[in-house]
Amino acid sequence: QLQLVESGGGLVQAGGSLRLSCAASGRAFSSYTMGWFRQTPGKEREFVAHITWSGGRTYYTDSVKGRFAISRDNAKNTVYLQMNSLKPEDTAVYYCAADRGVTINIKASHWGQGTQVTVSS
Q: Do 92 and 83 form a contact (C-beta atoms < 8 A)?
């Protein structure tokens, strides 16, 4: 079993930056593909980025390419999401997720509780 706890959310002005962290407890963190998703009220949770177990491959939704960067430190059981050039439309609750597959989607097996990111214009 894997427990995930996100941190690093907050309020930031448009154009600013935030770094989200997701700390995992439990065994075999390094064997999981890790992802970030986000959700706004009334909308479905959407994929943002994911990183393979080794960190060798990363994938992003088009709207964040060039602005966000996902990374992981398997020695610290932590995955990060560096968010730069933030826009008001990035405002959402951001969730960390883990799954054993080579990709990850909203049916992922493990989820964190979410952290709020608010970008003011």
A: no
Number of CB atoms found within 10 A of residue 94's CB: 24
Mean pLDDT of the chain: 96
The predicted pLDDT at position 78 comes to: 96
CA-based nearest residue to 80, from 22, 7, 32 = 22
What distances in angstroms separate CA 18 from CA 49, 103, 121, one per listed residue? 15, 25, 15
C-alpha distances in angstroms, 55 versus 74, 79, 98, 108? 9, 10, 13, 18
Q: By three-state DSSP, how is residue 19 classified? A: strand
Q: How far apart are CA 12 and CA 120, in angstroms?
A: 6
More confident residue, 14 or 27: 14
Let me know how long the chain is.
Answer: 121
Determine the Cα–Cα distance for residues 73 and 32; give it in Å rounded to an integer: 12
Q: Residues 23, 53: contact at Cβ < 8 Å?
A: no
Give the Cα separation of 55 and 46 in Å (integer).
Answer: 21
